[in-house]
């Protein structure tokens, strides 16, 4: 898989930026959990599918943020 980030973007994250990204990861994780729970509780199939779809979208956001953090970690 080709790296979507330009080479010059590989600068370690500042502690402030890392803190912001960690908070965003936490929020995305919470949304995934809530939407999965809502999907399980829905009786209406359209709402159930919407919640499942949104959970997958937030999972994609979470994975993209996590990949960004990992690609910019000091462990290179």
Tell me about this structure:
By secondary structure, the protein is mainly α. It has one domain (14-71). Helices cover 71% and strands 0% of the residues. It has helices at residues 15-41, 45-71. The protein is elongated, with a radius of gyration of 16 Å. It starts with 14 loop residues before the first helix and ends in a 5-residue tail after the last helix.
Summarize the entry for a quick read.
It contains two helices and no strands.
**Radius of gyration from CA coordinates:** 16 Å
Low-pLDDT sequence parts:
none
SSE order in H/E notation?
Answer: HH
Structural class: mainly alpha
Question: Topology of this structure?
Answer:
Layout: H1 15-41, H2 45-71
Properties at a glance:
76 residues, mainly alpha
